[in-house]
Task: structure prediction
Amino acid sequence: MNLQALILQKRIVLTMGPGGVGKTTLSALWGLQAAVSGRKALVLTIDPAMRLADALGLSDLAPGEYRELTLAELARWGIAARAPLHVGMLHTGKCLTSLMEREVPAPARDKILAHPFFQRLCTDLAGSREYAAMEELHHLHLRGGFDVLVVDTPPSVQALDFLEAPDRVLDVLEVQGLGWLRGPALKLGRMGLRLIPSYGDAVLRTLKKFTGLDFLREMATFIELFADHLEGFRQRASEVRSILHSPMCAFVLVSSADEHQLDECAGLFRQVSALGISPASILVNRLVLPPKPLPSRDAAVLLTEELERCFPAQREQVHRAVRAMEQAHRALGHLAARDAERVEAFEARMGLPLPVARVGLQPQDVHDLAGLEALRRAVFDG
Amino acid sequence: METKGNSLSMQLGWRGRLALFIGKGGVGKTSLATAFALWASRQGKRVLVAEVRSFRRVPALLGREVQDNGPVQLLPGLDWINLTPSFSLEIYAMKLLRMRSLYQAVFGQPAVSRFLRAIPSLAEILMLGHVVHILENDPYDLIVLDAPSTGPGTLMLESPRAALETAPRGPLREGAAWIHSFLSDPQKTRIHVVVTLEELPVNEAISLTHRLRDELHLPLGMALANRLWKSPFSDDTSEIEQEAQRHANGVALGTAATQFRTRLALQARYLERLRAGLFLPIVEMPEILAGTGDGEVVGALADHFASLQKQEERVG
Result:
């Protein structure tokens, strides 16, 4: 399915790929194209690198804040949009805090918010961000108000963590799986805070050695706080799981022409497919496009003669200039051929059921809306 | 120029144990880390390159196909390992428990692995702990760690300190303290930041180095500006190049020249911004045009390290 169709038809578009291939900029681009096509889009970056503000030139966009770019604002950048564009960067702590405020009633909520383990989760520890992203996606999707959600995911491995987050939550919340931790061996309160040997089995004793008793206790009190609210968490995780697998959701895999990034993209393709999700589109970004071919083999010699007539006093400079231009032409040709070769090899190796889209290296990095609009025209209108 | 040279020799001649490469994804961290390791091993050091949850890119770069996570020897004096949370957990648990049967009895249980997977940052701490464990127990002179890209890489580097500050007392916190003291010791560890001369990587490198220094208090080494295009032009010929574009025989050449010069100008501007924003010596690494094979690229980069070092010795 081509990108234009994805942007017009899907409810959720996830941009995935190795680091540094331009996922954030491209995600902003999908959002802008949606806005120009009259669909109200929200672009949400869950990559902890949080470069969306940079790509859009919104230096004051704070993590956790959602910003509306109105039609008037977009028009100031020369963009004829038919719907506003919303953008935001996930803030783990704010997201998890409002999640608790929404989902858990007092007094359990206040205890959770004050719990040291919860506060640790909020400091963006690895793992908690993926979980927060999953909840945020659920919240935004159900709340509605947008025609399409564009999600800019973190580089490959962490993106897989995100896709697996629902399963992971479902795993942990399985009552049987938790029974041993919630059971009497670690029971707190009236019984005092000791690990009771008669109840403790080998597992608990070993884990105690591994993490320390205080840590287990902390986990146990934390999980205990959720005891009456597990169902909601389980339900949301399973809803996100089915959203990610449903046809309203599309995955766009992005790579550059770099050999390793193509490899990583191929690996990601296999891993995503193994999760039962099939990417809707693959795009290779930032290709060096080939220079125009020389009109004849002796073009440089002829050009030298012509230029010597234009600059009769600078023969030596003319020779140097032509040599340098030939070198530049050769180098660009070499880089372009290398890129093209790699992408073709990638296509052949993958035996893809879908065509690989190609986007050329732009003369300038995108760092404001004008740059993004120029890229949009090059990709969608060109 | 002089201070840059001196600092560079200091970096290249540095005798510590752990060289960590970090930077935005796609800037060529893995190639440079591998080239650095190759160069060090050519000098007679015993080197281990460690990747993190990777698709085995380092062996591929050196033309080797590996099926498992290592450790495996890729070249004489150059070994490789792929760190994964479960691999590192096994090493750590075995160190604690010393009994494989007990390890399997406990950690083989789905409930236990679910529990462990739910502990944020545990995976990162375990993998860093694994690196320090190898350095303290195996006869390597140097470990070159190809860290994850900036976002997750920073989370990984800050995980021991976060655990140290927030985890309750116990083995986890002690382990974190042990890792933290290794990572924050400039005699033992250096963190090198890899960057390409483009808007997002440069911004990211600048904020990353400040964060590593000011918030995480980790010892930084050098910044490697990667994939620099070398200019074939001299300053006084741009007018001639403009004129060339007005000739049928010169359109292709002149346009290529303009395109190339645009890129060079951009590169110069970002190098300037990097110099202004960074407090590290900046090492310029070239875009390798010769050959498309990976082995050639890494070899050429390792040669470049060697030639930089020779230049320094001649100057110094």
Q: What stands out?
A: The CA atoms of residues 197 and 267 of chain B lie 5 Å apart. The longest strand of chain B covers residues 220-228. Chain B touches chain A through 86 residues (CB under 8 Å). The beta strands of chain B are 18-23, 47-52, 72-75, 78-83, 142-146, 189-196, 220-228, 282-286.
